[in-house]
Amino acid sequence: MTQTTRVVAGIASVAAGTALAIWSTRDLREAKRTRAPGKHVAAARAFNHGSALLALSVLADSAMEHYRGSFENRAMYLPPVVALCSLGAALHGGADQRAASHRLRHAIQICGAATGATGTAFHLYNVTKRPGGLSWHNLFYGAPAGAPFALVLSGVLGAIAEQLRDEPEHDPQLFGMPAGKALALVAGAGLLGTAAEAALLHFRGSFQHPAMYAPVTIVPVGGALLAHAALAPARHAARASAFARLWLRLTAALGFAGLGFHANGVARAQGGWRNWSQNLFAGPPLPAPPSFSALALAGLAALRMRETER
């Protein structure tokens, strides 16, 4: 891959991320402009979009990593299957404009979150049972403890989207607080969690490329700004939301730019993409960076919802 090709790929990735961030919240912007009903449905659909992107990331990642592990444990077949079901449910929800939840979709997403939580426990057990127990070496080279958590987030976003559809249009509530505020806090916490996993793996890689600092700086700041915008008093709300929205669009673009960087990492390995069957497993994980974009899209939807509440 030549230097020119890499630059073009990076620009295309950033453009794709920005376009997806704007596209995902178009229903919310239209609802706000026309004052039409259904703002909470538009937010629910945006959360479905984020859930779908996370499920796709988990599907690709778990299928590759568990295949590399030769599916030694039969339970290793479960995450790809559940992620595929979650992806289907999220895509169906993203296309559904009805202000009513779907029981099957809701059940699938709850099942996905439960499967992700169980997988996190299994991965932590795998790390602690290795010689040396809980150590940096085992965290680096054992089963990635944060990987199944993406399935938890996908299920949570999808389940919240279904619950939001059943809330009244004039005053939707989640977890005992205004829906926009609750959605922003959930998305912000998800961004901080995914940034922590990226920090661990990039620390393992000794931050050998300056771009490896981006996920551990841009993404946590996005999560903090989102939480601040959710909790800010009314007199500071507009400014906080505007700055957080700008930063979240940058975060969404970063996810796709990271995909380009990881693809470049695979290309630079011995044999490049011609030796894809080995380098895809040995190189940086391609499905990981889009999880930032998924949570940024959810955060943008939450901010739009929060603005209508104020």
Automatic annotation (TrEMBL):
Transmembrane segments: 6-25, 76-95, 107-127, 139-161, 182-201, 213-234, 246-266, 286-303
Keyword vocabulary terms for this entry: Membrane, Transmembrane, Transmembrane helix
UniProt-recorded name of the protein: Uncharacterized protein
Domain of life: Bacteria
